[in-house]
Amino acid sequence: MVLRVAHFWPATAMSQKKVLEPWCATITEQSGGQMTCQFYPAMQLGGTPAQLMDLAQDGIADIVFTLPGYTPGRFPIMEVMELPFMTIDGEYSSRVAWQIYQEFAQEEFAMVKPLAFNVHDRGQILNNRRPITKIEDFKGLKLRAPTRLTNKMVEALGATPVSIPMPALTDATSKGVVDGVVLPWEVIPTLKLQEVARYASEINAPDPVLYSALFTISMNKYKYEALPPKLKKIIDDNTGANFSQQLGRTWDEQITTARQKIEDNGNPINQIASDEVARIQEAAKQVEADWIAEMNAKGYDGQAIVNRAKELIAEAKQAKDAAATTN
């Protein structure tokens, strides 16, 4: 059985090389070759990145790796993981994302079989206008952000959000269509954005993460249900909370290398001080309040979802700190 695996990144991207290919190698080995993967990077099965979930739902692809946020309003509950300053990292926060899915969001993903949810490493800021050291430095900048809530955050900080597909970002930045981006460091060298945007600013621990975008690896539900029990078990054994955490860890592991490439290009990387982070966090609180109100209007208990996410993140931080102490 050949599983068609589709995503929007190039074939050389971390998401295929360090996530999908090792995962597929594992299920191929454990199934004795009964399950293998054929990769379709860069939307080779047609459509746009926003249509990847439809490709999985309709069976055009068997497995997709994408962002639910590419279709705003379709997966509202899982947006909680994209609220400003919600997460702490990729690894432990991704396990929380899976827990939120299990507790609140199974119905909104009922058309597919989710295999994992993850968030990336810390979202940071790169621009070609000026160093960002305080909230006032955002004012007037045109910034590309990846999701609906990140766009709202950018606006709350005084910048103008601009929606541009990721493949067009480098050209748009070099031509001044946007002044910069909010992205994890891992993406910057892949797109060579450090060559067209000079100033980098970051928020690091112990301060919370500026923003995260949520990803999912999801499978066609009927393809999964048609598997014999032995192959279903192999899929189940290699997905879920542990797989989600592993995905987040893969993103975290890219930070040092990607950051070094930015520095090697001569880009100054500015650390935003904790007191300024607090000011940015205060300004971004309205995004959370608006999201809760939106969810309430849709018939959900928005505050309960936010409270639970924060509770799980606090537990995750304790687990992360304990693991660091042990190691």
UniProtKB/TrEMBL annotation:
<feature type="coiled-coil region">
    <location>
        <begin position="270"/>
        <end position="326"/>
    </location>
</feature>
<dbReference type="Pfam" id="PF03480">
    <property type="entry name" value="DctP"/>
</dbReference>
<keyword id="KW-0175">Coiled coil</keyword>
<dbReference type="InterPro" id="IPR038404">
    <property type="entry name" value="TRAP_DctP_sf"/>
</dbReference>
<keyword id="KW-0732">Signal</keyword>
<dbReference type="GO" id="GO:0055085">
    <property type="term" value="P:transmembrane transport"/>
</dbReference>
<protein>
    <submittedName>
        <fullName>C4-dicarboxylate ABC transporter</fullName>
    </submittedName>
</protein>
<dbReference type="InterPro" id="IPR018389">
    <property type="entry name" value="DctP_fam"/>
</dbReference>
